[in-house]
């Protein structure tokens, strides 16, 4: 399953602004978000995962 890493900067006052988002590819042929997702014709709704963890 693909996911996103969110990086933060933490200050002494407890302010923690987001300073970056980085996509991590699971490299799975059954994940519709992956760069290796099946390109051939298939029933994606029933056979592929289409979730992303944030």
Q: Radius of gyration over alpha carbons?
A: 16 Å
Total number of beta strands = 2
N- and C-termini, Cα separation: 11 Å
Q: What do the pLDDT scores average to? A: 82
Largest sheet: 2 strands, antiparallel
Q: What is the count of distinct domains?
A: 1
Describe the structure.
The protein is mainly β. It has one helix at 44-47, and strands spanning 3-8, 18-24. The longest helix is centred in the last third of the chain and has 4 residues, at 44-47. The model has no long low-confidence stretch (mean pLDDT 82).
Helix-strand blueprint:
Elements: E1 3-8, E2 18-24, H1 44-47
Antiparallel strand pairs: 1-2
Key attributes of the depicted protein:
54 residues; mainly beta; two-stranded antiparallel ribbon; 1 helix
What's the gist of this structure?
7% of the residues lie in helices and 24% in strands.
């Amino acid at each position: 399953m693909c996911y996103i890493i969110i990086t933060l900067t933490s200050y002494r006052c407890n302010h923690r602004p987001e300073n970056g988002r980085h996509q991590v590819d699971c490299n799975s042929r059954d994940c519709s978000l992956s760069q290796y997702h099946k390109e051939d014709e298939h029933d994606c709704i029933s056979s592929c995962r289409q979730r992303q963890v944030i």
